[in-house]
Amino acid sequence: MGRLARIAGRILILVLVLFAGAFAWAHTTAMSRYSKKWTAHADTFPIPFPAPGQSAPDSAARADAIARGEALLAARTPCAECHGKDFGGGVVIGKTPVEAAMVGYWVAPNLTAGKGSVTRGFSAHDWDLAVRHGIRHDGQSSSMPSEEFVKLSDHELSDIVSAISARPPVDRDLGRIRLGLVFSFVVATDKNMLAAYNIAHEKAHPVEPPGADDPIALGGHIAQACSGCHQANYAGGKIQGDPNMPVVANLTPHETGLKSWGEGDFLRAMHEGTRPDGTKLNEAMPWRVYGRMSDTELKAVWAFLRTLPPVPKGRRT
């Protein structure tokens, strides 16, 4: 027994050493992904946009911009889901010491002008980098899911910034992200988990969004926000890197997706959170947010989804 115990002990030590080495590699590699310095086009735009015929925005133009921004935040760009209803930031993953150690500590930072703000003094270019490119103010990669927002027009982003900037300052400093066991291996083995690696940083952004007279273009523009969870091809499946998220629905017109759905079924799902068979959507799906969109916007999204090629659920290509 003593000999067997010694052999087992040596095997355990070897396993622990190999695991520690693997974790050290993963953590170092993942941090190098985050530390990569990026450059992007020097995009700029007015905050807020002046009204037509104005050379500079007046108080009415500012008020209109804030109202448009609040509408976008309420229904199409659910920033509050991560950054908190007061936009003072929130802990997305790592709310307990065990989760932080095993998975990681991922925070959405304070966007107000209070203590702990990461946006105080931001220029339009800084907002462009942060929101549409996944690049921090220091030029490094961020955890911002910018693939979902890269198609935002200058006018929309300006309105959103106007609305956030009008919010009361919140004093909340949540610190920087920390990579736990899971995050280290996920980012180390797939750099594309960070948005900055997936975005063409020199590509120009539209000044204005598509109009309602082109519903498919408008729907595709709005549906960009769905791509973060439902994947770039909208085929859904398991979300990599987040063990708390359920398997996501396939939005393409495939048998495993929305082939049997009609426009009315889609509108009901968005407004009531109910599928055609009467079952409820998972609460991880922010249907209450997207259901605030107008029927014109939702019908445009549906029109766009019907143009997608049918793809089996979970397929990445």
Description:
By secondary structure, the chain is mainly alpha-helical. The chain folds into 2 domains: 140 residues, Cytochrome Bc1 Complex, Chain D, domain 2 (Orthogonal Bundle); 91 residues, Cytochrome Bc1 Complex, Chain D, domain 2. It contains 12 helices and 3 strands. The protein is globular, with a radius of gyration of 22 Å. The protein starts with a helix and ends in a 12-residue tail after the last helix. The mean pLDDT is 93.
Which short descriptors sum up this protein?
single chain; mainly alpha; three-stranded antiparallel beta sheet; about 40% helix; 3 strands; globular; about 325 residues; 12 helices; Cytochrome Bc1 Complex, Chain D, domain 2
